[in-house]
Write a structure and sequence with these properties.
Helix content is 20%, strand content 26%. With 275 residues, it is an alpha+beta fold. The chain has a single domain, classed as 4-Layer Sandwich (Double-stranded beta-helix), CATH 3.60.130.10. Strands 1, 2, 3, 4, 5, 6, 14 and 16 form an 8-stranded mixed β-sheet that branches. Strands 13-7-15 form a 3-stranded antiparallel β-sheet. The radius of gyration is 18 Å and the shape is globular. It starts with a strand and ends in a 7-residue tail after the last strand. Bound molecules: 2-oxoglutaric acid (AKG) and fe (ii) ion (FE2). 2-oxoglutaric acid binds next to strand 6, strand 15 and strand 16.
Amino acid sequence: MKMTPLGEEIGAEVTGCQLAEMSDEALDQLKEAVWESGVVVLRGQDLSPQQHIELANRWGGIDINNYFPLNGEHPEIAEVRKEKDQQTNIGGGWHTDHSYDQVPAMGSILVARTLPLKGGDTLFAHMGAAYDALDEETKAEIAGMRAVHSADHIYAPDGAYAQTDQGKALRGQELKTLATHPVVIRHPQTGRKLLYVNPAFTLHFEGQTREESLPLLQRLYAAAMTPEAQARVVWKPGTVTIWDNRTTWHMALNDYPGEERIMHRITLSGEALAA
Ligand SMILES: O=C(O)CCC(=O)C(=O)O
Ligand SMILES: [Fe+2]
């Protein structure tokens, strides 16, 4: 297995590995690459839905996403879909999946099934690099702080997606989510300090209103917007991307009007987060 960095401080492109027939040692190596670099890309994979599920189970278990439409034959697989005639995509702004859960998902294995001719790339940002980029004063200010996360303003009947042409496809509109996590977490496996707030699901700091929280939140978000902290995944048929939600943010570009894009996502179970 060979790894080439994707960006300066983020990501790895892995060659010499077929996910469908990987040894336990290779799986352990791949996990470490995901935890440390945040996102790995594998090309030329021939991964059936059944093999996708088997890989996720070997990795450490599956969290069923409560909102995305599920694949009819394989309910472990969520479909991230944009039809030819839809305007809105899923995950089109910077976010961390499932930060609104008490025990957020570790990450995802995303498999390209139908791609536009060009466009539809996915951007990733490394939240360890973002934390490192903060000045010492800010690091001291956020040490010990906690933030409140929810998905209700995104997925509720009057939420962001309900007003778009993705609204009808989504499930779970009646769910209520609320979770509090440290603003700086330690990665459960690597121990690295990571900034754990994101523009989609973080509402405010604990003990502050949203209005009071926004200036500092915006400063923290800006730290993830450096070229060194970011990488772009350009999808091709057979591409599989695996990412860590603690280490990274991501966003899906919506630049392929009139074309269809269908991805199969399995969400990997995680663990409780601590400072
Ligand atoms: O479609 C993509 O590239 C990613 C969408 C997304 O945010 C997700 O699957 O969590
Ligand atoms: Fe996402």
